[in-house]
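Practice record 12: protein with calcium ion.
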Amino acid sequence: MKILCDRKGVVLILVLAMVAMFTAMIVTFSADESLDIELAYNFRDSVQAQFVARSGVEAAMAILAEDDPGHDSVDEQWGRFPEYAAGASQYLDGAVLSGIITDEASRFDLNSLAGTSEQDREFRIEQFKRLFRVLRIDITEDESNDLAHAVIDWIDSDSETELGAEDEYYQSLQPPYHCKNAPMDSAEEILLVRGMKPEYFFGTENYEGIRNHVTTGTGGKVNINTATEAVLMSLSDQISESVAASIVECRPFLSAGDYGCIRGFDLSDGSGETTWIRGLLDVKSTRFCVDIRGSTPSGAQVNVRSVLERINNRPRIVYYRIY
Ligand SMILES: [Ca+2]
Ligand SMILES: [Ca+2]
């Protein structure tokens, strides 16, 4: 089986070694417990599931360490992580590992709304509002505009309102909380911002929410090789569905600036908007999200979301949440 080729073999051994080590540790632990053996078993199963999931994150790190950082697209090894996880599961003695690696630069960075200049901020606000329109979210133009400004107030360090909301508003809520006044640590944080409704984030049966199209921590770069179609269309009114489809067809782009293949939209027309778009587009990424589910034969299940920052081919964990 192809999973046993050299490189994958190393990763697989890593996974198996971790699971075996923790199975042994937990069995010893539960043998010492005589008071409540069922509790001990439950605890063992949940810890085992956690380590199955953790080994998935380790495997993702190993794959990204070997990836060509010159460009990043889903036809690379990391893009085939679900297949890999399914293959690895066959060797986990009944435990199951599943997961996916997503490029964070495929999404819109909410922190970029603050802007690097006045013009950048204006473009970002338009991009944010367009994202809501493209996803057909049930929100008015005024409401999305207010929300964009409330996000800016949430992340800017001062307490002067930029047509949004600052501490005065958040302190009047029940229960009150403080305005962050610093960049968001995760996209979910937008749920705390005035004007943001859970359905805008999670979606409804009528429309998809922004959840899979927003992020934090990429500095606003968008990887043209991985960006969701909604994020591509959020960049400009000129990027219609057919232009987005043409971009998808041209993938993978191997070098930034070489976008001549795209039909229906000229990225080199020299206008303010296209110059801005060219400045934020890239063909590679340094930040990846790993979503893993680990489960044991007894049915215990653990989900992990981890964000990896890759610098000089060394991925490190910058965010880790078990749920
Ligand atoms: Ca790559
Ligand atoms: Ca503020």
